[in-house]
Amino acid sequence: MTTKLTITLDASVINAAQKYSAEKGIDLSTMVEEYLKNIIPKNRVVEKGASIMELKGILGKAPDDFDYREERYKYLMEKYK
User: Which CATH number describes the domain made up of 8-57?
Assistant: First the structure.
């Protein structure tokens, strides 16, 4: 999901960034996004997983002999018969 962000920068920085992105053939938004991804610690970028972690344990503990891969295989085999 993308969200629009408005930032205020010095005009000379904007001009230089636009020129640089044009020379490299990269959209300025993409360039800024990639830069931010590189400076943010990896565990902070993956905020989507946080909502999954809230669900952890909601169904209770699986039996010790539960084979997730085997169950998934059976499910997919049945689904795509």
Answer: 1.10.1220
